[in-house]
Specification:
By secondary structure, this protein is an all-alpha fold. It is built from twelve helices and no strands. α3 packs across α5 and α10 crosses α12. It is globular, with a radius of gyration of 18 Å. The longest helix is centred in the C-terminal third of the chain and has 30 residues.
Length: about 270
């Protein structure tokens, strides 16, 4: 398939992207080949989900420790200190596995479900699972009709055959959702959950063992925002910057899980 009919594959050829994709593949292959993964992959994937949820909440400004998240069982009394964000992130991490099959034929349905799951404690029931209306939008956000059109375009792009690496597809999915902010609450959490779904369903990380959210957090909240602004510029350089940033985050997230594997092997 030519890049003229495969726009995602064309993005994979932007400056620096092939090298970043290769670095990520090497890091993920090292993780998946670790002997702890062969013996205890479910434990590593569960830890990845927990660490990913914590990091995703931290990227929203709610930076709880892993110990705090493990200790708490009820977040309803902690909304003032970000409990709804943490709870939403944790619910998303638990829901991803049930949505993998649906993503391949109806990504918009999955996005709606992700919003229902993430925002259950944060928005009225009638707002769950539907894109925001213009009267629910903040200054500077795209009009609702433009958001709907671009979401439809994203869906068609994801459903079309593509030779693009999973990292590239995940980065575009992640960036589009963040840029569009289609929902009234939780767009960052949803974008990062969608990123995970793409990385799993496109075969890069089939067990969901890496922690790309931790990678994004390690690269810094400011760096994350700066890379997103580059993507939103729409220039080839800007899009390449965002894809490289996402690839580096996934590389760091794979290394995070290798460290977890080593700790499990040592019995820590």
């Amino acid at each position: 398939m030519s890049t003229a009919t495969d726009p995602l594959a064309a993005l994979a050829l932007l400056p620096g992207v092939p090298e970043s994709v290769e670095d990520t593949r090497t890091a993920v292959d090292r993780l998946l080949g670790h002997r702890t993964m062969r013996r205890r992959s479910m434990d590593i994937s569960a830890e990845s989900a927990l660490r990913g949820a914590r990091a995703s909440a931290a990227l929203e400004g709610v930076d709880w420790s892993l110990e705090e998240i493990r200790r708490r069982t009820d977040y309803s009394s902690s909304r003032d200190d970000g409990g709804a964000v943490v709870a939403g992130a944790l619910r998303l991490s638990a829901e991803i596995g049930t949505l993998l099959g649906t993503w391949g034929h109806s990504p918009l349905q999955v996005l709606a479900r992700l919003h229902v799951v993430a925002a259950a404690d944060a928005v009225p029931a009638e707002a769950l699972g539907r894109p925001r209306r213009d009267d629910e939008s903040s200054a500077g956000q795209l009009p609702a009709d433009e958001v709907a059109a671009r979401l439809d375009g994203l869906s068609r792009l994801l459903l079309a055959p593509s030779a693009a690496p999973a990292v590239v597809v995940a980065a575009v999915t992640h960036g589009e959702i963040l840029s569009l902010a289609p929902f009234g609450w939780g767009n960052g959490l949803i974008a990062r959950a969608a990123q995970r779904i793409v990385l799993i369903t496109r075969g890069l990380d089939p067990k969901g063992a890496a922690v790309p959210e931790v990678g994004h957090l390690e690269l810094g909240v400011d760096g994350y925002a700066e890379a997103l602004r580059a993507y939103e510029s729409g220039t080839a350089e800007g899009v390449a910057t965002w894809i490289r940033h996402c690839a580096e985050a996934m590389t760091l997230g794979a290394r995070e899980s290798v460290a977890v594997c080593e700790a499990v092997m040592r019995g820590i």
